[in-house]
Amino acid sequence: MMKINLRGDKLVVTDAIKSYVEDKISKLEKYFDIKDLEAKIIIKVSNNKEIIEVTIPTNKYTLRAEERNDDLYAAIDLVVDKLERQIRKNKTKLNNRYKKENNMDFNFDFIDSIESDDEETTIIKRKEIDVKPMDEEEAILQMELLNHDFFMFKNIDEECISVLYKRKDGEYGIINAK
Fold first, then answer.
1. How far is the C-alpha of 68 from the C-alpha of 74, rounded, in Å?
2. Who's near 62: CB < 8 A, 6+ residues apart?
3. Which residues are 12's β-sheet partners?
4. What is the DSSP letter of 30?
5. Reported pTM
6. Which ranges in the chain are annotated with CATH 3.30.505.50?
7. How buried is residue 108: exposed, middle or buried, by Cβ count under 10 Å (0-12/13-18/19+)?
8. CATH of domain 3-112
9. Residue 36 in contact with residue 57, Cβ under 8 Å?
């Protein structure tokens, strides 16, 4: 049985919400062969939108989806649909990658009965860049000047390679490679 870790951020999680989330998320159990599976769920409110984030970590990969909607129950339905699409879309890749191992995590017998997207993902472009040393403020300026959603630079404050990215909420995030 899937353990559900549910918390609200700027929102009280009522018994009705908890019950609805548990009912919907538990439907994903059929896709997994894992005994101690945990779904980490955060429900929050931002700019009058209900947001639900679901993260399901396993030993080999992490499923994650986020959805925002005016109606929390609609957002819950949409996030579960999004997670199911991720599983179906990547079924073939996951099956090929983990076929040799005994503990594959997924129940592919169930997924075989569902239409899947077997398109092969390919890299269509490669770029080489000069990673220039700069601080985070200069990186933000460079990213804005280039009108990109992300920017890679040598972070002189952290002494590592960093990726600056623009979040959906308009703020910035940084990923550091150590």
1. 9
2. 55, 56
3. none
4. G
5. 0.62
6. 133-177
7. middle
8. 3.30.160.100
9. no
pLDDT at 176: 94
Residues 6+ positions from 27 with CB-CB distance below 8 Å: 80
Please count the residues of the chain. 178
- Sign of the CA dihedral with 79 first, then 81, 85, and 87 last: positive
Q: Which two tokens stand for residue 139?
A: 């990186």
Residues 6+ positions from 153 with CB-CB distance below 8 Å: 131, 132, 133, 134, 138, 139, 142, 161, 162, 164
The pLDDT mean for the chain works out to 83
CATH of domain 133-177: 3.30.505.50
